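Entry 14. Ran structure prediction on the chain below.
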Amino acid sequence: MKMLIAVALGGAVGATGRYLFATQTLRYFGPGFPWGTLGVNIIGSFLMGVIVESLALRFQVSPEVRAFLVTGVLGGFTTFSAFSLDISLLLERKDVGVAAFYAFGSLGGAVLALFFGIWLTRVVLS
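Output, structure tokens:
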């Protein structure tokens, strides 16, 4: 039961962060491109690298704290279901080039951000 509560609370924190980030990017950049979803997926992947590597190298935490951070907060913050919807909407508008850029930018950016987070954490904690 403690694990479920940890994930649920983390999910609330992450989803709130995603909402705030998305509304601010929409306000700043407008609705022409899904910058909010792209941003949370790349930032979330970077944070995943930092958190997972920090827990592996330096910090011992309970399984509940790990689940709160990784499954809850980051799971609530990042969203590949919204990513899929955004691509389908871009394709329906026949913005094939923009959809391709968004797809490859999201996937490539997220993986690169994860590795950057791991590398940076190793540098800082070593």
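The chain has five helices and no strands. Will compare against last week's run tomorrow.
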